[in-house]
Amino acid sequence: MPIPNNTDHSPGSLRRSYKRYLKERVIELLLFLAAFLSVFITFAIIYLLISESLVFFEHVSVWDFLTDTQWTPLFDDAHYGILPLVSGTAISSLVALVIALPFGTIIAIYLSEFAPFTVREIAKPFLELLGGIPTVVYGYFALLFVTPLLQTILPDLPGFSLLSAGLVMGIMIIPYVSSMTEDAMRSVPMHLREGSYAIGATRFQTAIKVVMPASLSGIAAAYILGISRAVGETMVVAIAAGMQPNLVWNPMEPAATITTYIVQVSLGDLPHGSVGYQTIFAAGLTLLLLTLVFNILGHLLRKRYREVY
Amino acid sequence: MQIFKPASGHTHSTVQKSVVNKLNFYYGGYQALKNIDMMVYEKQVTALIGPSGCGKSTFLRCFNRMHDLYPRNHYEGEIILHPDNANILSPEVDPIEVRMRISMVFQKPNPFPKSIFENVAYGLRIRGVKRRSILEERVENALRNAALWEEVKDRLGDLAFNLSGGQQQRLCIARALATDPEILLFDEPTSALDPIATASIEELISDLRNKVTILIVTHNMQQAARVSDYTAYMYMGELIEFGATDTIFIKPKNKQTEDYITGRFG
């Protein structure tokens, strides 16, 4: 039998193919550009907010901005205290979260641990539908249905209130919280649940004592997303909460939030470059910092309760 | 070809702990267990052996009604538990009550995302035990019985995930022991472990056989020979042969059992 001659190849067959190399580099470059673009836009927005806010802070001191209790940039007696807008944002978000987090979590526990397959397959699309309704519809739902309904119980409730806006915002956020929480809980491996069942735990005990702690980082992420959405939500509060910047801590009053104020000024006829107009950048920067704090908090939580199976 | 040295040096009990009568089990329309009759003797180790897919894990999981967790599973026949003389597969029997008395250790160590102490205390806590002194005593006892106490007594508050694989498996055994089960089910408890950890788990099972009735599923025939008093050989959902481990390994009655044990197939 002849021994195959290994040297009988055309010379240079091992050489690097420049065509393939070039193709790979082009693909790599395109992927890099796609990733770079989103990072670039983020930084561009931050740059814009900061540079425009600096113009604003040349007219108004940071101290006044943070401590003044009135927000009246459009009045003759102008005050530039962000607190009324922050309080409006905080109260409406708080009301929304009091609704969204518990209900979202309960729905997630039910769908992930209790619901039979068919129920889950029917219920999930409906929940997602709830998340697909335009926010402006929720706004009118709050103004024209929820507020009158609440007024039958609370006769003193004004036509615009943080309570009504917050409640509806909460209903709106439920699907986000429940779907992310459910995903986190469902990703807990079955053998962990079986370990709990095998020593006599009920489904509820297993859900609360084993599945939830095991998926804590995912649940924390879901909660943070819910909070971010509540803080950044615009339409519902713009329609149902009124637009007067009041420093209130009572949800049964009308008030403006940071977002509604930005909408109000953007749609108004203030000249560009005036201090009044620059206020929206300072307000926007405040909003960005608020959500940034929550995102960092979420990141820390994720690291603290990293899933290890 | 090799004949394994059977476990020796300990007395065979003939007190019945559980009797399996004409057990059939179905995953939906698929029959996984066919007409199984078997005895489980008290404070003895019974090994279930057989090739992959023969139904030995399915059979084991019948004993604490794990199949109830998934839809469309269906039992027929009886598993009588003594001293109650009750069929634990009966619809009137609460699977949670069964699992309180018949506990299970799994193939892959599955500690909960909790501290070492809370992992072992879990079974007690879900039964409503709150007194710290009782919890501490029972946890220590369970960890001692699982031969883990000396290694973890100074770090009971550490997360269980920080333990090695073998330690995690012994922790799972301690977790199952903490509630004083009557029967302990092992589903291939060493298949995810290295040889040294495997040896320590086997030693532990040998120690435990005087305290609790044990059923163990294993792929490893040497392991069955080393740790068990009784062996059941299963094939295609049927129980082919059941008897004292010495008999099964030295002179099996059935040709199929002999072929499997001597490594001619499987």
Automatic annotation (TrEMBL), chain A:
Annotated ABC transmembrane type-1 domain residues: 86-298
Q: Which SUPFAM superfamilies match?
A: MetI-like (SSF161098)
Q: Which GO terms describe its molecular function?
A: phosphate transmembrane transporter activity
Q: What is the species of this protein? A: Nitrosomonas europaea (strain ATCC 19718 / CIP 103999 / KCTC 2705 / NBRC 14298)
Tell me which GO cellular component terms the UniProt record holds. plasma membrane
Q: Which UniProt keywords apply?
A: Cell inner membrane, Cell membrane, Membrane, Phosphate transport, Transmembrane, Transmembrane helix, Transport
Primary location:
membrane
**Protein name per UniProt:** Phosphate transport system permease protein
In the record, the note on similarity to other proteins reads: Belongs to the binding-protein-dependent transport system permease family. CysTW subfamily.
Report the membrane topology from the UniProt record: Multi-pass membrane protein
Query: What parts of the sequence cross the membrane?
Result: 26-50, 90-114, 126-147, 159-177, 219-243, 275-297
Is the keyword Transmembrane assigned to this protein? Answer: yes
Tell me the PANTHER family matching this sequence. Answer: PHOSPHATE TRANSPORT SYSTEM PERMEASE, PHOSPHATE TRANSPORT SYSTEM PERMEASE PROTEIN
Do you know which InterPro entries this protein is assigned to? MetI-like, MetI-like_sf, Phosphate_PstC
Record localization? Cell inner membrane; Cell membrane
GO term, biological process aspect, one: phosphate ion transport
Does Transmembrane helix count among this protein's keywords? yes
Function of the molecule: Part of the binding-protein-dependent transport system for phosphate; probably responsible for the translocation of the substrate across the membrane.
